[in-house]
Amino acid sequence: MKKRRRLNLMWQRFFREWHRRLAIVAGSVLLYWIVTGLLLNHAHDFSLDKRPVNQGWLLDWYDIQAPDEIVLAKAGELIWVKTDDLLWLPKQQVMECTGRMLGAGVMRDGYWSICGSVLWLFDQTGRALEEIDLATLLELPPARAGSSETGELVVETVDRKRYFTVDGWDWHEAPETLPVHWQRTYPLSHEASTLWRKRYRAHWLNWARVVQDMHSGRFFGAFGLWLVDIAFLILCFTSLSGLYLWAKMRRP
Amino acid sequence: MPSKLVKCSRLKRTAAGCALAFLFSVVTHAVVYMTPLEYARTVFGASAPKSKVVWLEGRIAEQVKAILGHEYPQLRVRYWRQGNRSVWALKEVGKEEYITVGITVANGVITDVRVLEYRESRGDEVRHKFFTKQFDGVYLTQNNQLSKHIDGITGATLSVQALIKVSKMALLLDQVTRPKP
After folding, report:
1. CB-CB neighbors (< 8 A) of B51 in chain A
2. Which chain B residues are closer than 8 Å to A203 by Cβ?
3. pTM score, two decimals?
4. Which end of chain B has the least Cβ crowding within 10 Å, N or C?
């Protein structure tokens, strides 16, 4: 009987001691989960999914690298910037483009830009009208592009054949003598390049993603996942030890 | 919004960093199954009709916005029509990337849905026939809803939503461009 009582007291002391110690850890973890969980639940309300991460150290942490290639195309007042595989259109739209940026130019009622085999048409204010894949309209890929004096888009394919169009869909072979103002891309100044490098990196990461990763523990990598598992076990222990101690305290 | 393959350099990063980058990496598979013109040719044959455009302005733009929950990224949409049959190639963001979908509408009813281009890293089950055949025979109700419930796919919820939205949009645009009797 005495032995059993001594054992009970020993268990009580063990639980009381470790319950207090681990409760501090569990409380801190719980608070962390509550804060990140609340942020995650209201990510849309706080526009976290639309807020790019501009913090360099965080982008480094995610190993998001700056683009190797940054080129500019311009037509009238509008500019197009290509950063690696992204093409930034005049009205903040971002499109994927894995090919070479041929340039941008003026058309009869607006503007055009060609990146890879994709032709974009824009209205006079720079709003995107249409995206057209030239791969199925021209027999060979475009090598260079420009505008004619009468405002048609002229494309020269890799076999040096020239075609012109007004609407981007109906193409007609153009004579070699047709005067064309060929377009090209331009390098950016050092300051502008630095800005676009930052912008490009920030494009790939938003705050909703960071909070989600923090909440799940993935932010700290494989170690973070283990940390979350351990925190769960600690929470389980403190819940059970709390119940045990409460039950013991109720007894006279 | 397009996404990026997070690169990992073993020499520069620690093993933990690599594990982290691996966990975060989102591999973009930009797969082009068919171009819009090729899709139109599969529907109409080699002698596909000349394409036309519908401008997304005024009332049409408002209705499209109501369906998609945002403005369409282009001011005009290209389509092919022969009699009461029209073919559309529309795009909508799934989770982060655009999905381009080809839709054939005949007499106001969908007869074919096909994923033409898929860029998302996950959820490409929507391109399979077992899913797209659900759209066959679906039409637009008075309040711009599909006449039939489309079953979702676990893990591809946003891609499914994108296909539902563009299907509604195609049916709406078919209505407004249909020649009046």
Report:
1. 169
2. 1, 4
3. 0.75
4. C
User: Is pLDDT above 60 for B16?
Assistant: no
Q: Provide CB contacts within 8 A for B113, sequence distance 6+.
A: B101, B102, B103, B104, B132, B135, B136, B163, B167
Are A203 and B16 inside 8 Å of each other by CB?
no
Measured between alpha carbons, how far is B3 from B157 in angstroms, rounded to an integer? 18
Handedness of CA A231, A236, A239, A242 (dihedral sign): negative
pLDDT at B3: 45
Interface contact B4-A204, CB threshold 8 A:
yes
Taking residues B85-100, report their average pLDDT: 91
List, as own/partner pairs, every contact residues A2-10 make where C-beta atoms lie below 8 angstroms and the sequence separation is at least 24, other chains included: A8/A248
| Chain segment A31-72, per-residue pLDDT in tens | 999 999 999 999 888 999 889 999 999 999 999 999 999 999
Length of chain B: 181
> In one letter, which amino acid is A63?
D
In the prediction, which pLDDT does A55 show?
A: 93
Contacts of B97 in chain A (CB under 8 A): 96
Strand partners, A148: A180
- Residues contacting residue A211 through CB under 8 Å, at least 6 positions apart: A36, A39, A40, A43, A48
